[in-house]
């Protein structure tokens, strides 16, 4: 497996295009949720992804502390549909958390999790810090890992 972690400026045009395409395919099309996917946070974030045979199979965005929240944040977590339930999502989160802790030297991470994935994130030490709320029509919960 070829995990890559890049800043926005390090992404190739094809990687950026493929990442955005997959995010839109999942968050906008698959989840039937029209929302502004391009939010001006990508340019200052880290992009962790698994690319095999030219396709992005898994991806997440790591936002440095102070960009969106006081804490570092992991978001836009996706796994392409045909690779779900294969363990890739767990590897993605382990790699993202390791980068935050080892490279950014941060211990507190905040996420906005879709509520149906709460138990998945709890398995990595995240705990709920909010009630369930609707974000773009989808139940979410704020969670932190300390």
Which helices and strands appear, and what pairs or packs with what?
Blueprint: E1 3-7, H1 13-30, E2 46-52, E3 55-63, E4 72-79, H2 88-102, E5 109-114, H3 118-122, E6 127-128, E7 133-135, E8 138-145
Parallel strand pairs: 4-5
Antiparallel strand pairs: 1-2, 2-3, 3-4, 5-8, 6-8, 7-8
How does this model look, in words?
The protein has 146 residues and is α+β, with helices and mostly antiparallel strands. It has a single domain, classed as Gcn5-related N-acetyltransferase (GNAT) (Aminopeptidase, 3-Layer(aba) Sandwich). 26% of the residues lie in helices and 33% in strands. The chain contains three helices and eight strands. It has helices at residues 13-30, 88-102, 118-122, and strands at residues 3-7, 46-52, 55-63, 72-79, 109-114, 127-128, 133-135, 138-145. Strands 1, 2, 3, 4, 5, 6, 7 and 8 form an eight-stranded mixed sheet that branches. α2 (88-102) links the parallel β4 and β5. It is globular. The two termini are 29 Å apart. The model has no long low-confidence stretch (mean pLDDT 94).
Largest sheet: 8 strands, mixed
Average pLDDT: 94
| Order of secondary-structure elements | EHEEEHEHEEE
CATH class: Alpha Beta
Principal-axes geometry comes out as: globular
Under CATH, the topology can be stated as Aminopeptidase
Distance between the termini: 29 Å
Low-confidence stretches: none
SS-based structural class? alpha+beta
The second-level CATH architecture is 3-Layer(aba) Sandwich
Radius of gyration: 14 Å
What's the total helix number?
3
Instruction: Write the CATH homologous superfamily.
Output: Gcn5-related N-acetyltransferase (GNAT)
């Amino acid at each position: 497996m070829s995990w890559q972690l890049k800043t926005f400026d390090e992404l190739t045009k094809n990687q950026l295009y493929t990442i955005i395409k997959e995010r839109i395919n999942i968050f906008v099309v698959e989840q039937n949720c029209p929302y502004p996917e391009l939010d001006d946070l990508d340019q200052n974030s880290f992009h962790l992804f698994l690319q095999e045979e030219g396709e992005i199979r898994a991806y997440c965005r790591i936002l440095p502390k102070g960009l969106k929240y006081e804490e570092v944040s992991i978001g836009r977590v996706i796994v392409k549909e045909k690779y779900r339930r294969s363990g890739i999502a767990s590897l993605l989160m382990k790699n993202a958390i390791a980068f935050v802790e080892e490279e950014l030297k941060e211990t507190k991470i905040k996420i906005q999790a879709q509520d149906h994935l709460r138990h998945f994130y709890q398995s990595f030490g995240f705990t709920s810090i909010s009630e369930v709320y609707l974000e773009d029509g989808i139940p979410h919960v704020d969670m932190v890992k300390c």
